Amino acid sequence: MRITGNTVVRRYLSNLQRNFSEKNKVENQIASNRGYNRASQNPIDAAKALKVRKAMAELKTYEYNLNTAKGIYETAESSVMQVSELIQSTYEKLIYGANGTQGDTEDEIIADSIRTFADEMVRLLNTTVADRTIFGGTMNKQAPFEIKGDTVYYHDVAVNDFQNPSFFPNSGSSYTDIGIGMYMGEDGRIDQQSALQVTFNGVEVMGCGLQSKTTTLNLEDMVGGEYSLDVYIGNQKKTISFFGGSDNEDTANIINDALEEALGGRQVEVDFETGVLFSRISGDPDVTIMNTPLLDEENVNYIEYDQAEISNVAMGFSNNIIQLTLDSAKCLERHDKTGAAQFADALFAIQTNLSLSIADIGNKEEFIDFNLERITNNIFSLSEQQNELEGTGSDHQAEEITIWKVMESVYNASLQISASVVPMSIFNFMN
Fold it and tell me: Given this model, what pLDDT does residue 329 score?
């Protein structure tokens, strides 16, 4: 059978191309450290590797969520810490303002400073991180806190309106999946133990509602003796002084007469059987009283009175830190020195709730760091599995290099014999 020159050339070029492809394949495997480039080359390992890649992609998502949450918690902690510092500054201002040596002008200057502190608190609590208003609950489209006049609002509801923070609009929290098994509860909401909270109910952190204002006098201990009490009805304050009666009913009548004279009518009464102080004004909240010394007629010396035994004493202060700060400024604007001192004590006491919030945020940050370390270790383990399933592996690296050297020698030899296979043209002889 006669074999033409063209047939020989075609076969030679085909073999040369195959040798080049084999050499190039080994080169790519060495350069990419991959054992195969298509699933068809190793279907079993490719299927296993796909599961590993999916697990790694999920872990990368969880890692991103955790890093985002960490930034949110760091910002939240910074904001709450700055609010705490503003509370301390407000407390110092109130103590200074309660000093009777300051004049009306100084009171107004201090009150203006305290109002500035309240505005700064609102700004800090309206901070947005990663498109989330972190103290806005489930609402991210608008700032949660706002001051209108002398009232603080949370999502357009006055912070004193509800005692329970969950009653406010958008009072829930947003959560993110961090890979600990997020699932929905029977109520259709995310189970709080299965995900990480990334937004907070602002009124739960800062407080809401009013302190209990039910006040009870122990009338049995008020037989004889001279007493002085501050009576509060909302923002109205009256001071009364009286002598205890012969029995509970007599003492209650004496107190009620003193209250009627001070308030210009029978607005507040003491029940002689229970000693509870209550208001007759429709819709008015319960009233409260506190022991207080009185100034003499020239406002020089305090007159000491016997201390009445009072249970459940409270002034009806706001439980919300911002509202309490604003109310203390109003107190100074009225030049009420005694009230300023009482607001200072109330503000100092309510700061405990904020400290608990700071501690809770700190615990969540530690939880985030723990899970970030866990995910980092898992990603490292999966990377090793991926390398075993997809890569050439260190054990096979020397073998792959040897194969490449052989394929390179074969390819070079193929090039060298081309002179014997490919016919020379006229152009070869012209060189």
Answer: 92
